[in-house]
């Protein structure tokens, strides 16, 4: 596992920003993807040596003004800025936003009532270990035949990386795997003992397919998007998803899926035994 999440995040974001996006000229002979360290240093008003120390983990406590300057230079979104500050704070030994609290597996009754109102859409409640804590019947009809709900504590991350069916279930497995790693790294990441233990378990079990992503995937999953799944009865479905964060004390999130096209809407209606059009494509 990477012990330098701050440096990794800065490097990956630097490599993702093109010179044109940063208002810099684009030369014909560039070996570095995105911005060079010198270019980032100039944009942020710091030295190249300091950027190098941050990326290499030799300095892990930049000041708030430096973080703000780097965020501006890297054109970070608001969520990426929050993540950057969390990584800087998380470099302090023993610091964790969660303290010593374990993952919350108790779903409040009002959240369960909310799930009922979301029927027949596939919706699920997850905690920071990607454990499936509660779901709609619509999600159960979709996920149960795939093996996603197997076990005492079903987990999306464990399914994606350890279940041999996962690559058939997710045609875009690599993208899904990246998102699962990003979700585990978000927030406290490996500084949380429980998340760190899961990361260690998956590293041993899966090897490079998981461990390699720990050093190449920044810790911010996409809050929305489209995922493809292959169901034994309904065939391939394309689902648009939205992630709804619950209050921090819950340490949970609700992920709601809707059909991304008319064929997927018809497939979900088929699973539900409902008339066509019960779920509309977004």
Describe it.
The structure is a single chain. The protein has about 280 residues and is α+β, with helices and mostly antiparallel strands. It is about 45% helix and about 15% strand. A five-stranded antiparallel β-sheet has the order 2-1-5-4-3. A hairpin with a 6-residue loop joins strand 4 (about 235-245) and strand 5. Helix 8 packs across helix 10 (about 175-185) and helix 11 (about 195-205) packs across helix 12 (about 210-215). The chain is globular, with a radius of gyration of 21 Å.
Layout of strands and helices, then pairs:
Blueprint: H1 5-16, H2 37-44, H3 48-56, H4 64-73, H5 78-90, H6 109-118, E1 123-127, E2 132-135, H7 137-143, H8 156-162, H9 166-169, H10 173-185, H11 193-206, H12 208-214, E3 224-231, E4 235-245, E5 252-259, H13 262-272
Antiparallel strand pairs: 1-2, 1-5, 3-4, 4-5
Helix pairs in contact: 1-3, 2-3, 2-4, 4-5, 8-10, 11-12
């Amino acid at each position: 596992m990477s012990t330098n999440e701050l440096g990794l995040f800065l490097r990956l974001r630097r490599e993702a920003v093109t010179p044109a996006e940063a208002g810099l000229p684009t030369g014909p002979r560039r070996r570095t993807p995105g911005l060079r360290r010198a270019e980032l240093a100039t944009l942020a008003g710091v030295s190249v040596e300091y950027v190098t120390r941050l990326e290499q983990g030799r300095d892990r406590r930049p000041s708030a003004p430096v973080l703000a300057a780097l965020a501006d230079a890297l054109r970070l979104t608001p969520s990426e800025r929050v993540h950057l500050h969390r990584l800087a704070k998380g470099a302090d030994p023993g610091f964790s936003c969660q303290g010593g609290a374990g993952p919350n597996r108790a779903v409040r009754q009002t959240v369960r009532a909310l799930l009922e109102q979301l029927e027949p859409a596939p919706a699920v409640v997850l905690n920071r270990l990607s454990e499936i804590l509660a779901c709609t019947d619509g999600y159960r009809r979709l996920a149960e035949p795939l093996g996603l709900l197997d076990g005492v504590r079903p987990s999306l991350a464990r399914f994606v990386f350890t279940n041999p069916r996962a690559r058939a279930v997710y045609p875009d497995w690599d993208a899904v795997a990246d998102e699962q790693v990003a979700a585990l790294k978000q927030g406290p990441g490996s500084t949380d003992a429980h998340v760190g233990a899961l990361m260690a378990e998956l590293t041993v079990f899966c090897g490079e397919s998981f461990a390699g992503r720990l050093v190449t995937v920044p810790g911010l999953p996409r809050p929305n998007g489209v995922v493809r799944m292959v169901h034994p009865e309904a065939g391939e479905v394309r689902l648009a998803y939205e992630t709804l964060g619950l209050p921090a004390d819950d340490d949970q999130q609700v992920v709601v899926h809707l059909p991304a096209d008319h064929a997927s809407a018809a497939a979900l209606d088929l699973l539900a035994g409902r008339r066509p059009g019960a779920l509309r494509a977004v």
